[in-house]
Amino acid sequence: MKNPNSQSSKSGSDPTPPKPRLSFLPAIPSWVIGLGIGLIVLFIFSSVSKSFWYFEVIENDQVGVTIEAGEIQGVLQPGIAYDFGLFVDLVKITTSAVAITVDDPELITIDKQRIGLEVTADVFRPREADIVISNYSRYRNIYLNDESLQQRMTAFTLQAMKVCVGDKKFDEAVIGSGRDDLRACIDDELSGLAEPLGLEVRNVAVPQISISPEVQAGLDAIVQSRLSTEKAKQDVEKAKQEALAQQAVEEGRIRVDQSKLQEEARQQAILQDIKRQQLEAELAVIEQEKINTQAQLELTSLQQKVADQQALVDIAKELALATLYEKYPSFVALQIALANSSAIKDTDKLIFTPDGVFPNLIFSNGSTLPTYNVTP
Length: 376
Fold this sequence. Notes:
By secondary structure, the protein is an alpha+beta fold. The protein is 57% helix and 19% strand.
């Protein structure tokens, strides 16, 4: 059996009202609810697409192109960039160097010679706002894609290489300073082609130049012939220099021998002069000695004469006395008497006795001493 009470509640005919539910939440204004719903919707849309906002960091080697609804609004330099709106976007352009290397093995010079070139360069995208804005829409792919940039610059480089090589002779393009002229020409041509795109070309170099085997063989033959000619010239010059050197050696030897002879002659002359002076000195000494000997002889003779005269002077008195004595005997007796007289002193005692008488000496003490005969 069914319960009548349950059947009546299903039908909704129960007149008893439901009890009210208790709530402790405060009332929320409708504008707050609307703002929240809007933010939720904006977050959902921003998560789905970045076309409504951006918040990006622009690096030092980049510039940022701000776009809104498909139109360029400006160019931003490195830093933090942000914006929001309908269909806003920020495109980053890398401005660091993009290296290119281009080879062309078949280039024809103006004198119909084939050479190959390898050219390297660095390409820079623009940083200036006006150049970026004026060229971005036309060269967007080149500004954003390195591969596209390299393809375009490769084509420009090949054209520049053909123009510059085609205007030069083989020697002007390959040998010596001609390679630097060729590099400068390619640099100018390449810069002229890249400038309309807002691109800058730097550090152009031509590191490698290749030539065909036929040209290489011809150059080798020319070089070999030139080397042979130069070697022959060098041999002639060498022989000439050796002859000059030998001649210089002989001349030097002759000069040395001549100098030796001249020095020997000068030394002999000096020696002879010294000997002459020595002989002259010896002769002078001998002559002086001779003079001295003669003078000595003369002096001796004079001294002898002086001595003789002095002797004469010394004996002149005696000679005069002798003559006087000889001429006057009485004068001799007088002189004898004077001599005897002068010989007697005051203390002497004289005794005169006749001849033949021997006197005796009588002393005071009484003794007697006979006198000796003094004239026997």
